[in-house]
Design goal:
The protein is mainly alpha-helical. The protein is built from 9 helices and 2 strands. α3 packs across α8.
């Protein structure tokens, strides 16, 4: 459908029939990441103006889901996995394994296109960092975050997420 839209055209600008046809014509890949790790990454990149992680989390909670930044908005509100049938869901932390499978299924040469990932190191680092940052939060903030991301936690297998406890 390249003649019908430009790079800036939003899918919501089409009617339902066109949306179904467009989505049916493409392979749909969704990249997902544990919501708590997304918060940590956003905070570490300085995208929040808060001096501490705890106050940043409070700002996120105070913003609410409808006014949330794309950086921390729940994935189900951004990507609509209940409405769009994604062909692949790729989990952060397993990129090498999952992207290799995706490239192979697409008939592309896996070895020449995949960068070197250090998934094991990334998972260990985020696990350690998550525990440190999580310990800074009050019990109420932890409960509120679990509620804020409840649909993400239900939709995706974030089994090791600190928010799912």
């Amino acid at each position: 459908y390249p003649w019908q839209h430009t790079r800036e055209t939003q899918l919501s600008e089409f009617n339902l029939t066109d949306i179904e046809a467009i989505l049916g014509a493409y392979t749909k890949v969704l990249f997902v990441r544990d919501p708590f790790q997304r918060l940590i990454s956003t905070f570490m990149q300085g995208m929040g103006s808060s001096p501490s992680f705890s106050s940043f989390v409070q700002d996120v909670l105070d913003s609410g889901q409808h006014n949330a930044s794309v950086a921390w908005k729940p994935l189900v509100n951004l990507c609509h996995p209940c409405l769009i049938q994604y062909d692949y869901v790729v989990m952060f932390g397993f990129l090498r394994q999952e992207l290799g499978h995706l490239l192979q299924r697409a008939g592309l040469p896996v070895d020449s296109l995949l960068p070197k990932f250090t998934d094991t190191q990334v998972r260990w680092t985020y696990s350690w960092l998550s525990e440190q940052m999580f310990s800074e939060l009050s019990l109420q903030q932890k409960k509120q975050l679990s509620h804020f991301y409840r649909w993400d936690l239900a939709a995706f297998p974030f089994s090791s997420s600190l928010l799912s406890e």
